[in-house]
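During the no-cost extension, the postdoctoral fellow (Dr. R.K.) reprocessed legacy sequence entries with the updated structure-token encoder. One reprocessed record is reproduced below for audit purposes.
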Amino acid sequence: METRAVRFISLFNKIEKEFASRLPDSKRSTFYDLIYLLQDKDLVIRNYSSKLKKYADLRNVIVHDTIDGKIVADPNEDAIIELELIYNQIASPSKVYPLINNKPPICLKPDDTLSTALKLSEEKKFSQIPIYNEQGYFGMFRSISIAHWLYNSIQDDIVSIKDTKVRDIIGLDDNERTVVFRSKNLNLFELWEIFQKSAKQDKKVDVVIITNKGLTTELPLTIFTEWDLPQIAREIKA
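Re-encoded structure tokens follow.
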């Protein structure tokens, strides 16, 4: 039976070989150098760069620090499990679909009433619901949009939830929030990056809609919102 040290070195060598295959002209580069060269191109490597460096240090201790030819450092099982996870993600990053939120989202139609949208939002605990017509994506119903609509309606002294359509609500907060479309081939790290970059911008992405090819004319396979970030973080161990 292989020792933990042997299993660890075997996994580490697989990662190093994967890196080298992507940079054939960097045969004399250190593992740290390979990380530096690849992390700007690969979100997975960037995500795990700190851990990879720590495991590189551990690898050096295992290989070089011996007493009478015997290994002194012995990685624990948790380290091996994590290193294997990192290798698997580097070699083949997990796709967002159907790993997370694999049920088709509930959608509204432009002529659905506001009362229908509110009831659906309350029953399903959704704060955002996509709206589709026969041509494809029409807009996003957001709970926060109601506050904008209500304010405008009060100014005109006209408030009728029963007669108001969802088409009358959407677009009132488009200066603050936006929706992006991506294909089902999007991986978890790319999804995480979309929300992380958006957090630094004035107009934030609050919904990512996943379709077959990432087109607005396609029905959604699933959607992701900021509320999904904790689950995404757990999946990638960010």
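The first strand starts at residue 66 and ends at 67. Residues 4-92 form one domain. The remaining legacy entries will be reprocessed before the final report is submitted.
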